[in-house]
């Protein structure tokens, strides 16, 4: 008979063992090997059979064993040291307290998913893993972060294959009582938040807390008895359901998330956030909620509240293509943001303006979450230098008066949390210090190891990965209908002495899972080479609704099923943290071949590099900016060729050539291949510090969080600064049509311009109803292309020299001819205010008249020479 309800019963630990509960309830154990050793010592066999889940371990360990441990002095001493170490970790001053000067009281970090550990299955892929690593690194550095997400009762799907190799999805129930999390309580009562929905409905949620080292992660859960059945299902699964279902999830994450943060801070005394960081557009409604708060609680008008919110908000975009952005029908937004729900201070027309695609090529019928995220945040970033460039081009329509280079979207390249992803054996080879969390010279110990030690360590890791893979492949085939009797061959798949390549990631079409299959015969020849064979382990999930991605998986599985090559190439289902952790150290080469430039960052190659794997990748995402031929190999990109089949053929054959002529020969160059190990050393020592999540979080603190906190303080102090800024923006927008550059001239150019010459620039500007203090006049100069576009412009500010009648002014300055060849310049007027984060913030700029316009001044404003 089926149970009508399920729950987990936790054991009552003997008093001497209460420290085990302390260790379980802080997820630091997920990246702290010494704490994992304590759990393993409780019952080594049970620790392995539970998959390294300490909650299950303590729930299944026999009471007699607990009694035995409670009287074991050696174990109790070990437990005491582990608890003491954890207490020091969460309380001692770290980088933020010692070096950053604690310039930010608190940061609220919102994400739809968080990948902390496989024990807490609240993630689907790279976005969630990145968010988890962000929290862990913030904890290591002492950054006062509060994570905010949702608790999905079915999480993301688990993947299996049917007999034909077609992806199957299953959504196992996640039991919060069986996970290392706890309910936020106000006294004895679970804390809840609520949101008013159309038709007088209420969406309520309780708040679960996962303690990630020093960082609390709040997860909202709508599956409570106070909700109607439809509302209980809002947090059912990650990235599933109808359009309205997704909207309700994002409403709960953004609006409910802010309310949950307020409850958490009230109950616990945690410092209220000065900065709100939204990791992708899913949580964008947090800005609407903050505006509602300010209107309801402080009596601020919408424009003033908007400026207060913007000053303290950071928005990170992860998608390089418009199709990756959530967009909702305008009618759906109108239904859910009525005055009944959000008050008269947040009118629906102003909300709709935030997400409107009111730019050339936009769709007036949709509400764009990324557009709203950019309009509600004063600071925004992409996740690699190349992605920042792509994002500035993709969102340039919001700033039509500026070139894409001026679009105010910066970039902070992602990083990965080394203590989570680096194998213990690699740590033992590399560590020059025992502090794995903060130092960036932690890899210097590698200099003290011999080539033979490194090579043997990699073989051990390869064997461990192969053992894990064989177990998973066997189970996959049983799930596909095979019997044990026909699976003897599984024990012979893969070889610890063969060059091992890994390919694991989500399976959308642009990541090109099957690029390696463009020439199956050639791939087979490499897999079966008599002296230099390769072997490839592949993993990845396709979104349940992505039929094209599922077909790619099936094509790969069918190739790997071929008895001729199945010992050399395997597809392993259900890619997750538990599969990834042995995979990165077990690989020698990490393969990545997306369509450039559609990879925003791609952090899997970083994790592999930290474990001594060399990257073989298209120069996309992070690999584009940090590529070095000592870190691996760059697959040539045929970017620009419109025929996708021809492009795939060209890039696939370039990949084959690299493997056959460079990668495999170097790997098999001697019993201990010195040149390979030299590259491995160089990768870990030189690339390693760059890809650390601690570097990433420090960048966020210094480049975005601190400036946002300072803006937030200035605008929140009395709200007069925000009122003044809102009024100033209104004045500037109204007056801007009158702004013009009437005349520009150069002085001292000469008949033959020469390198190094300094020339004077004079510009005459009419300012209409604005004052000179409201604007800045800039000269931009540099090399020009065939269309007279200035490439890589250098900017210089011109100074006010003289004022004339009619609010006309002369500005002067100098520019240096610092490069040869075609050279051009222009002058523009942009708004200027101390509270702006960028001159492009308002999207307004006025330049010289078009020289071809009959009404233009006698002299052109720009010149080429």
From TrEMBL:
Its recorded reaction(s) are:
[(1->4)-alpha-D-glucosyl](n) + phosphate = [(1->4)-alpha-D-glucosyl](n-1) + alpha-D-glucose 1-phosphate
Assigned keywords, A-Z: Allosteric enzyme, Carbohydrate metabolism, Glycosyltransferase, Pyridoxal phosphate, Transferase
Record EC number? 2.4.1.1
Q: What are the residue boundaries of the DUF3417 domain, all occurrences included?
A: 13-120
Q: Biased-composition ranges for Low complexity?
A: 856-865
Q: Where is this region: Disordered?
A: 840-865
Task: List, separated by semicolons, the cofactors it needs.
Answer: pyridoxal 5'-phosphate
UniProt similarity note: Belongs to the glycogen phosphorylase family.
Stored NCBIfam families: more_P_ylases (TIGR02094)
This chain's function reads: Phosphorylase is an important allosteric enzyme in carbohydrate metabolism. Enzymes from different sources differ in their regulatory mechanisms and in their natural substrates. However, all known phosphorylases share catalytic and structural properties.
Q: Know the name of this protein?
A: glycogen phosphorylase
